[in-house]
Design a protein that fits this description.
The complex is a heterodimer of chains A (539) and B (197). Chain A has 539 residues and is of the alpha+beta class. Among the domains of chain A are: 81 residues, RRM (RNA recognition motif) domain (Alpha-Beta Plaits), CATH 3.30.70; 168 residues, Nuclear Transport Factor 2, Chain: A. In chain A, the strands form three sheets. In chain A, strands 7, 8, 9, 10, 11, 12 and 13 form a seven-stranded mixed β-sheet that branches. In chain A, a hairpin with an 8-residue loop joins strand 11 and strand 12. Chain A starts with 10 loop residues before the first helix and ends in a 5-residue tail after the last helix. Chain B has 197 residues and is an alpha+beta fold. Chain B is globular. In chain B, a hairpin with a 4-residue loop joins strand 6 and strand 7. The chains are: A alpha+beta (539), B alpha+beta (197). Chains A and B meet through strand 7, helix 14, strand 10, strand 11 and strand 12 of A and helix 1, helix 2, helix 3, strand 2 and helix 4 of B.
Chain lengths: 539, 197
Amino acid sequence: MSLPSGHTMGHTDQVAQRRARCSDIYQRRLSSRSEKVNPGIHSSSHQQQDGEAAMHGAHMDSSVRYTPYAISPYNRKGSFRKQDQTHVNMEREQKPPQRRMEGNMPDGTLGSWFKITVPFGIKYNEKWLLNLIRNECSVPFIPVEFHYENMHASFFVENASIAYALKNVSGKIWDEDNEKISIFVNPAGIPHFAQKELKSEKVEKIKLAMNQQCDVSQEALDIQRLPFYPDMMTRDTKMASNPGKCMAASLHVHEENIPMVMSAVGMDKWKGTEPGEKCADRSPVCTTFSDNSSNINSILELFPKLLCLDGQQSPRPTLCGTEAHKTLPTCKGSFFGSEMLKNLVLQFLQQYYLIYDSGDRQGLLSAYHDEACFSLSIPFNPEDSAPSSLCKYFKDSRNIKILKDPYLKGELLRHTKRDIVDSLSALPKTQHDLSSFLVDMWCQTEWMLCFSVNGVFKEVEGQSQGSVLAFTRTFIATPGSSSSLCIVNDKLFVWDTSHQGTQSALFTLVPTAFSSVPAFSQEQQKMVQVFSVQSGMNY
Amino acid sequence: MRKCRSHWSQGDRERHQRRSYYYEGPHTSHSSCGGRTREEVVTPPLPEHAAVGSPMAMSVDFKTYVDQACRAAEEFVNIYYETMDKRRRALTRLYLDKATLIWNGNAVSGLDALNNFFDTLPSSEFQVNMLDCQPVHEQATQSQTTVLVVTSGTVKFDGNKQHYFNQNFLLTAQSTPNNTVWKIASDCFRFQDWSSS
């Protein structure tokens, strides 16, 4: 049913289509709201039933079989209010869903439920959407409890590998407007409509704890960046142990406190929004409702200010904990492609800086290619008013972000080895600390090596004698004569760490590139020769 | 914006694409009215190279290379960080299939790995304060037009403190008769204070 891209439609056709879609959406919203709390999905009640049996996450090594559709004795006729839902626990730490699911797969754990969510799925007809997904999904699946929730469409699947396959469909299917359709996958936890009824004291406590922990920053929430549809609630004990991190929390626990995306209650906070004004340029869908005041809440829900698809400005607290699971990869030390290249590069650097620091940089002529390029930069900090030890580098600094003069742009890029060495000779005298060097070898081919050196050096003369500056220097080199490297591009960036307060932090505790390099050995010389031979150059 | 695009017929779209190739400066295929359907850094076609070896040719070539490098670099950096911050899922379109990234010492290689990697990175807010570029000598690239781009600034990843960063890119040109598309062949990223993060 999806149109091939490029299909043309007459204007009236489009309007008619939109109107039809609007009324579809309206119908879906009505029906999803009027549904009673579905007694089907009760992770919590199941917990209650099993007493102290803790659920260690729906998907992971669950010794307790999770049967979300069993109707427990605690849940007849929607008596959720009487229950303490907060006994449900997700005692695991937040981890990226992908890792969680991958952890599952070797098990092929059955009985693991996953909630599959299509953001803005309310726009789509159920059959059409499921067919579209089926066509792209590498495994067959049975969608359970397909429903619309606020703006989204969701259903459940019972299998980690199916969930994983569905996740891979995300971004590979398109709707009739040629918009990519995303699919978010989450281990199924407390279902949303169950949580609306949470009223207990414990909930209040958790809310309180969450607010304290939460880093509510004024940021637009970009739906495109939501990695998953937060559906989990963690205990306050967990929160205490992760003070620096926001927890992923049930949307509905938050709803009275912080307006969130897709929150049914949060729209009170947006009363100032003019639905017509907001919607007109965003989507055709709301035009049908714009004059119907009784549907204002629906419109706001459909298109909350918070939802900034295009990264527009919108001061709004973040969905606290949305990305709590996203931690930065650990920073590591030097990266070398191979042991042989490592030695080659370190040897080169030793020789280079020996000459560079010697007081006479003319010796570097042999290190550069005839037509090499060199430029240097220092940071541009508008706040820097006081003269610093960087000022001597200022006149050579090439920053094309702020430098618009084409003549200077050309001049400050030194070209030919003669020019380069002259220019280097004019820079302040230095003493580099090789033990501080950290090297990233980030590109290597048969014909070149590209690596960046990070480290510090001292000024050894002049007004700022003794001051320590940090640098990053990127070299692009080709195999040279005498088993060495020949520099074709050289880019130096110098900065002052004192304002960062990390002057020595770079170097003290971390094993650096030169920590374990012995003096030049015959073996190393041989290796260098191997590189030269491999590259096809005869020396 | 969506409204704009959905009103276009196929013919309109094609005409728009063609028109943008005649622009003087670099442009992006998404920057005009319409949705962001593609992330690309596109500049006018590469000039014919003068005969290699003659001094005049060399100097003309070099200046041209430098200008071209600057234009590509500036346009590229704008798009890259905006995409990183606001349309993270589209970021890998700016990379070659076999591109590699060394991120604070972590090696990531190939589009699949890059997709995963950027997916797991928290949302970001980049501020670029410094940008420089150099044309890479053809001896190193076997005549595959390449530009070294170097940036520096600050970045705030969600849930983490702000860091100063340095980043290096090797951008290579993929030429067609109508334009040049630049993509990242290699990428190196470091926090300046990485050891204390």
